[in-house]
Amino acid sequence: MVKDCFQRSRDVRVGCVPFLSSTMSVSAMHIRAAGILASAAKMNARGIVWAVVLFLVIVLAPLQPIALAARCQIGNVSYSIPQQAAPSQRIETATTVKGSCETNGEDYYSIRVDVIDAPSGLIVSSNSTPIGYNATNFTITVDNLPTTPSNNGTWHILVDVYVIRAGGTSGSYLLDYRTSTNATMQIGEITPIPEFSEPQILSVIVSMSAIVVSLQRRRKRRT
């Protein structure tokens, strides 16, 4: 087709050359459009990936446990719990916490203690005592007033201790420390087991043996 075009008259060639140029221009435009579409596809793919990453960061960030922001070092936690009490009696327990927290003057610290009935999981007493804005090298005692069960027996309880920080700038409450301990308490009087001396035990054995022999003799007489 190109050869025939050049063999024609000058007027025809003049009209033929633009035709070839326009054909080549259309092909170049097709190639350029394909490149633009490919670049756009790559950009869209990258945008989708970044959008997914941003979504995961926004969704998963609040799920981080607040304990990771702990700024308190607790040296010792001691408990004062009665070993025995009457049924349905209101008793007093004391929990002493010693430790130190990073303080910037904006966060307000306090200690909360929960006394929990272990079999049911119910909180029977909860109390908080403030530490204050200065939480370095503190010793705080928290008193609780739980009521014992109405039945005699061994009472199993849990004592949960929390160090809570109220954020002055964020306004959120953060858990900086937690510990839990088990304790038991005797409710009601313990029924004593009777004790026997050796002579008493021997006399009981002899008496039981005599009863058995007499019963056997009576049976033989009847037969």
Provide a descriptive summary of the structure in words.
It is a single chain. The protein is an alpha+beta fold and 223 residues long. It folds into 2 domains: 2-61; 67-187, Immunoglobulin-like, CATH 2.60.40.2550. The chain is 37% helix and 35% strand. The protein has helices at 2-7, 10-60, 198-222, and strands at 72-80, 84-85, 93-101, 108-117, 122-132, 138-144, 153-166, 173-187. The strands form 2 sheets. It has a 5-stranded mixed beta sheet, with no helix packed on it. Strands 1-3-6 form a 3-stranded antiparallel beta sheet, with no helix packed on it. The radius of gyration is 44 Å and the shape is elongated. The termini are far apart.
- What order do the helices and strands follow? HHEEEEEEEEH
Number of strands: 8
Low-confidence region ranges: 1-24, 59-69
The CATH architecture designation of the largest domain is Sandwich
The outline comes out as elongated
Separation, N- and C-terminal Cα atoms:
141 Å
Number of helices: 3
Strand order, biggest sheet?
2-8-7-4-5
- How would you state the average pLDDT, rounded? 75
Q: What's the CATH class of the largest domain, please?
A: Mainly Beta
Tell me the number of structural domains: 2
Helix/strand-derived category reads alpha+beta
Secondary structure: helix percent: 25-40%
Short description:
The chain is α+β, with helices and mostly antiparallel strands.
